[in-house]
């Protein structure tokens, strides 16, 4: 009934935020950030001052981080390195396989593509965590328990990624471009590598960021299949929180700060893209 | 005219054949093969890897659940539905199911409602828009294990921040672990804190696709902003709401890390198992002590069934209560 005019209309002031809106949002923002800031505050204190209220920062942050990193039982440095390796490999793989399959679904014609795409969408609904027991038995059989490939290989592909790339490729890459490349004698693979992949870069960046964060934060599976000798950073935190060092609260909080810091840095640099990715990816699902 | 048209082909055919055709025919065949079959190669890695490490384990869970399957003792005996039968009488299983459901309801309902409101606030022209959006989604990028540790201290019984705040305004401290409901609340709070902003962004994305002039004409007709929210915004983003409900159900029923870290990394979930969830109980039965894989698998499969049933119930409820203008 109404014309689909997306431009700014005279009544746009309806959409101006009121002071009350700002107040509510700032309050929400403070509530969001507070626990993280608070954990950094505790991480900066001396152990004798852990429980002191109100929360004011101390000057021991680097001492605590040093102690945390030097703690052999938690193998925290290993945890950080392992997490970095696992997250990087998984991210590269997800980007590669998702863009490859997404390109095929968006731009190539082949029999059964619709049915296969439907299957991929349905895989997004299968809670893979429920298969952990057989997956663990498989890892025992393969002799992979305690090794990093146990936490890498099962996550090399992701239905969400394929779907997201397909959606992006549909709108970002014109059929003419692909036709032109074909007339120039490009094989499909070269079209993917030289034409499609560069064009998919913005979506690949978002997918990569989301995958990296998700993998970095993965908890249950590494906890099941790894050992204290080969922890990821989350596993190290778990060892610390239930282990002998429970009393060394400030070091534990230095650990939580270290586990969160890489993600915070990524987020501060790429926040806009991450937000765009969350908003886009979900609407299209 | 017709003569010239007819004249062309012979002259082409008569030209001396260049050395290319044989080669060209081969590349043509290769090209056809490439066109016809290479797409399957491109989508194959997904299906192979997902099939082996995603789908197969989920299906194989059913098979394992029919066995008395213990890795350490080497027991592996077909017992049929015995595991399921035992589960029905396992009080600790029902306790865990009760806790899971309680924490799920406490976390999902407020989370999605607040997320809707938040998205509505964010869906305006404002200064520092990106900064505010980043602010609400920051909890989601933190590590779950770290969040569990942080909130364990915030909700600590003796020196916790919340009890300190309660004390300064004259209330008695709350036993955040010993009291079942209080522990559920604390865990649900963690989940809400982590996911509300994320869901708000998802809703915001959907809201921005709604044409603004719908609101224009509604406000010309005298509809209040509140009314517009319920009569225009909510019905139009209904598919997105359904999506978030399904995702929250799948995630919520498998909740593990938050209650685990809240209980200092122990799978027991409090002295009386008052906040032990199903995922924690599965872990306890399977990966500690006797390694009862068959029993754990039976539980996993029942959990899967519960997720499906609840997702469908929620789906039906929301479909009915949030009416769209079209089907």
From TrEMBL, chain A:
Residues annotated as domain ABC transmembrane type-1: 80-270
GO biological process per UniProt: transmembrane transport
Keyword hit for Ion transport: no
Xref: Pfam families: BPD_transp_1 (PF00528)
Cellular localisation: Cell membrane
GO cellular component terms, semicolon-separated: plasma membrane
Membrane topology of this protein: Multi-pass membrane protein
Major localisation: membrane
TM spans (from-to): 20-43, 76-103, 115-137, 143-164, 191-213, 249-270
Position of the signal peptide: none
Domain of life (superkingdom): Bacteria
InterPro entries noted in UniProt: MetI-like, MetI-like_sf
Keywords: Cell membrane, Membrane, Transmembrane, Transmembrane helix, Transport
Family of the protein in this entry: Belongs to the binding-protein-dependent transport system permease family.
PANTHER family the record matches: ABC TRANSPORTER PERMEASE PROTEIN MG189-RELATED (PTHR43744:SF12), ABC TRANSPORTER PERMEASE PROTEIN MG189-RELATED-RELATED (PTHR43744)
Name of the protein described by the UniProt record: ABC transporter permease subunit
Organism whose genome encodes this protein: Micromonospora terminaliae
Lineage: Bacteria, Bacillati, Actinomycetota, Actinomycetes, Micromonosporales
Automatic annotation (TrEMBL), chain B:
Sequence ranges of Low complexity compositional bias: 1-14
Entry keywords, A to Z: Cell membrane, Membrane, Transmembrane, Transmembrane helix, Transport
Record has Nucleus as a keyword: no
Membrane topology reported for the UniProt record: Multi-pass membrane protein
PROSITE patterns: ABC_TM1
GO biological-process terms attached to the record: transmembrane transport
Gene Ontology, cellular component aspect: plasma membrane
Domain of life: Bacteria
Pfam family membership, one: BPD_transp_1
Ranges that cross the membrane: 40-63, 96-119, 131-156, 181-204, 236-256, 298-318
Cellular localisation: Cell membrane
Residue ranges of the region described as Disordered: 1-22
Residue span(s) of domain ABC transmembrane type-1: 97-314
Family (UniProt): Belongs to the binding-protein-dependent transport system permease family.
Name used for this protein in its record: ABC transporter permease subunit
Organism placement in taxonomy: Bacteria, Bacillati, Actinomycetota, Actinomycetes, Micromonosporales
